[in-house]
Design a protein that fits this description.
The structure holds 2 protein chains of 2 kinds. Chain A is of the alpha+beta class. Chain A contains 2 helices and 6 strands; from the N terminus they run E-H-E-E-E-E-H-E. In chain A, strands 2-5-1-6 form a 4-stranded antiparallel sheet. Chain A has a two-stranded antiparallel sheet with strand order 3-4. The termini of chain B are far apart. Chain B has 21 helices and no strands. Chain B is 72% helix and 0% strand. Among the domains of chain B are: 86 residues; 87 residues, no CATH class; 78 residues, Tetratricopeptide repeat domain (Serine Threonine Protein Phosphatase 5, Tetratricopeptide repeat, Alpha Horseshoe), CATH 1.25.40.10. The chains are: A alpha+beta, B mainly alpha. Chains A and B meet through helix 2 and strand 6 of A and loops of B.
């Protein structure tokens, strides 16, 4: 079972910025234990572009699709046997990243 | 009730959770298990009056439900092969490691009370899947629209499946936290029924206390060594024992000190006391008492007094001191102050209560307690103001009636 694990940051109350080494160590462990599928930190939401090509021609708009205080700062994809395993790892991830984490299953 | 009807009711009480749990394990799908169990009981209602009650009702119901489930899966497979894959998802893994406690019903309870589900959802799902209450019954008991309750349960089943919330008893290191989550659900069900006082209350709401006790008994049977399970069961029994004495014929709340103690249920009290003694023995042997055990012990002290004047208040206070160390919540501090009033007088107690104003200003019991302590010191005017505030905030008609009478007795 795969889970999308989102790291959520808060613009008005951001998590600490010195988490990189801890996240690397955590990733190494995820890889060693077979949970890691993919991971990546995201650039600022200002760098996002939204494309809508459902009409006559593609429309590009500058910025994220939804403007909010909380935003997606990074993602993982984990392979885990069930939600309990994913939640346990996510609880660690939240500490490691100093941010909130959302766990959502793939279909 | 006829013998057959009685047999069906008994089978429903004893076997519903077992049937749902066994089917969930076999088919890996709560929805299929729930529907098939409901169909099996409906079949029993049709068939048992004519065919007679089978010698082993539980086995009959499980077999019938299994057949219903297989019929449904066959029907759906013809329609859609993808369904089949989804339903087999759980079936092909290696068998789960079997812990010390291996009962499908326990798995079912832990799944329904999973921390990834909202509290209200856990409550609804537990009452449906483990308790066997129907969706309309649960909706009525919680004063929610039936369609809304149906949606809540459907969504929960979908989440359990989509997110793969496991169907198993948690690992030993996670067990205390998960058991405490289950107990929180049951205590909420109990309180929902207990606080539903007054003559116009739907009897189904009262039924929630009985249901909570029944489910807690079940967990007690499955986890006999867990102190907090025993504590919660004792707490519920000792509270339920006072139920009839707690509301007057006129629908007014009767506080503990004014209750007719002869109306208390001695059977429930004896059972509650036995459980508390069991936990006291465990504590003497070094087991740490949790909050339900301490609350149960406090209730045991109250129910041991034949007359309110015989209450061992120093014992009550000692237990509250223990509880405060475990849970420094202002509500516990408020209840502790009530014991202080009995030992050190209302003035000392009032000083302690007043310190809680920041946190409890919006809580009716805070004002009701102040009103009583002020009244006992002869401060009628201040007492009246506190009663007014308590009446404004109290949501329960029986309680409002009591507070109003108390206020109007002030001179």
């Amino acid at each position: 079972m795969q889970y999308l694990v989102s790291v959520i940051d808060d613009k008005s109350n951001p998590g600490s910025t010195d988490r990189r080494p801890a996240i690397s160590t955590f990733n190494e462990r995820l890889i060693a234990e077979g949970y890691w599928v993919f991971s990546g930190g995201l650039a600022d939401t200002d760098a996002a572009t939204v494309i809508d090509n459902r009409g006559e021609q593609a429309v590009f708009s500058d910025g994220p699709f939804v403007e909010s205080k909380e935003y997606l700062a990074g993602v993982w994809v984990w392979e885990a046997p069930d939600l309990d395993v994913a939640l346990k790892l996510a609880a660690e991830a939240s500490k490691v990243c100093d941010r909130k984490i959302e766990v959502r299953p793939f279909q | 009730m006829s013998d057959v009807e009685e047999a069906i009711t008994r089978a429903h009480h004893n076997e519903w959770a077992r049937v749902v749990a066994a089917l969930t394990r076999r088919f890996g799908d709560l929805d299929i298990a729930e529907e098939a169990a409901a169909e099996a009981f409906a079949t029993a209602v049709q068939r048992w009056p004519a065919d007679g009650v089978p010698p082993n009702p539980g086995a009959w119901l499980t077999t019938t439900a299994n057949r219903k489930a297989i019929d449904r899966i066959r029907r759906e497979n013809k329609r859609d092969d993808k369904h089949k894959e989804a339903q087999m998802v759980y079936g092909d893994g290696p068998p789960e490691p079997v812990g010390a406690i291996d009962d499908d019903r326990l798995r079912l309870i832990f799944t329904c009370c999973h921390p990834a589900l909202a509290m209200q959802t856990r409550v609804a799902l537990t009452l449906r899947m483990v308790g066997g209450l129907t969706v309309p019954e649960i909706a009525r008991a919680f004063l929610v629209q039936e369609t809304a309750m149906e949606r809540r349960i459907t969504r929960a089943k979908a989440k359990i499946k989509a997110a793969r919330i496991p169907y198993r008893v948690p690992a030993v290191e996670d067990l205390p936290a998960r058991v405490s989550g289950v107990l929180a659900v049951l205590y909420l069900v109990f309180n929902e029924g207990y606080l539903a006082t007054g003559p116009d209350t739907d009897p189904l709401r009262h039924g929630l206390t009985a249901e909570a006790i029944r489910l807690t008994r079940l967990i007690r049977a499955l986890l006999p060594g867990d102190g907090e399970v025993a504590g919660l069961l004792a707490l519920m029994l000792l509270t339920e024992a006072r139920r009839t004495a707690r509301v007057s014929a006129g629908g007014e709340l009767v506080p503990l000190a004014e209750q007719d103690r002869g109306a208390w249920d001695t059977g429930l009290i004896a059972e509650g006391h036995r459980l508390v003694r069991e936990r006291l023995a465990a504590a003497a042997a070094g087991a740490a008492a949790g909050r339900y055990q301490i609350l149960a012990a406090i209730n045991a002290v109250h129910t041991a007094a034949r007359d309110v004047r015989d209450t061992d208040w120093s014992q009550v206070l000692a237990l509250y001191d223990q509880l405060v160390r475990l849970d420094p919540s202002p509500i516990i501090a408020l209840n502790r102050a009530i014991a202080v009033a009995e030992l050190d007088g209302p003035q000392v107690a009032l000083a302690a209560v007043d310190r809680l104003e920041d946190k409890l200003a919006g809580y009716h019991a805070y004002h009701a307690t102040r009103a009583d302590l002020l009244r006992r010191q002869g401060h009628s005017q201040q007492s009246r103001a506190a009663y007014d505030r308590a009446i404004e905030l109290a949501g329960n008609t029986a309680e409002t009636a009591y507070l109003t009478r108390r206020r109007d007795q002030l001179r």
